[in-house]
Automatic annotation (TrEMBL):
Its EC number is 1.6.5.-, 1.7.1.17. Also exhibits azoreductase activity. Catalyzes the reductive cleavage of the azo bond in aromatic azo compounds to the corresponding amines. Quinone reductase that provides resistance to thiol-specific stress caused by electrophilic quinones. Gene3D superfamilies: 3.40.50.360. Pfam families: Flavodoxin_2 (PF02525). InterPro entries: Flavodoxin_fold (IPR003680), Flavoprotein-like_sf (IPR029039), FMN-dep_NADH:Q_OxRdtase_AzoR1 (IPR050104), NADH:quinone_OxRdtase_FMN_depd (IPR023048). The keyword NAD applies. Binds 1 FMN per subunit. Signal peptide: none annotated. Keywords: Flavoprotein, FMN, NAD, Oxidoreductase. This is FMN dependent NADH:quinone oxidoreductase. One of its GO terms (molecular function) is oxidoreductase activity, acting on NAD(P)H as acceptor. It comes from Streptomyces triticirhizae. Belongs to the azoreductase type 1 family. FMN binds at residues 10, 16-18, 135-138.
Amino acid sequence: MATLLHIDSSLNGDASVSREVTRTFRESWQAAHPEGTVIHRDLNADPVPHLTAAGHLAPNLAPEERTEEQRAAYALRDALTSEFEAADAVVIGAPLYNYGVPSTLQAYLNQILIMGRTAGEQSTVAGKPVTVVTSRGGSYRPGTPRAGQDFNEPYLRHLLGTSMGLDVRFIVPELTLARMVPAMADLVELADTSRAEAHQEARAQAGALAARLVA
């Protein structure tokens, strides 16, 4: 049986588009693989602590050399990292906040990125499929006024793909604020299309991935 690790970081609850799409991904995964396991980690409801100096240094020390503080900090990092390593696939909701990832997601990634373990040439998670749903209130495509100002995708592509060796794919619903911002009223149709396409892509990716992993 395969395990899906489902991570959400949006603070918008039921109004969150990234949560909508990751939920579609999870439900499609479960429909294709009902015997599988899903672990849901909600970083907004249950945030992980920021990385401390003790946690940062601990992986570089032998267990017997660590202080009590370093042992406790490393125990958290090890638990989070082991959970990530054990998953067969991961879906991450990563909305764009102030041009980057939510601080809760940043804290989580800082905890699980360990050089010589999950990062580097011998990464323990190399090749693991990860789908990132990065929703955006506006549009940052080439040719738009804000082109180049979305730092979510390049950051996550480098950290997850280049540093950790994961097989990363992105689903990008955009213009999610169109129904709330009067100045964006003429973009509602485009927003609805983008949202529908994101759900369709999530269903397709999850179904194909579940079928591949359990074949």
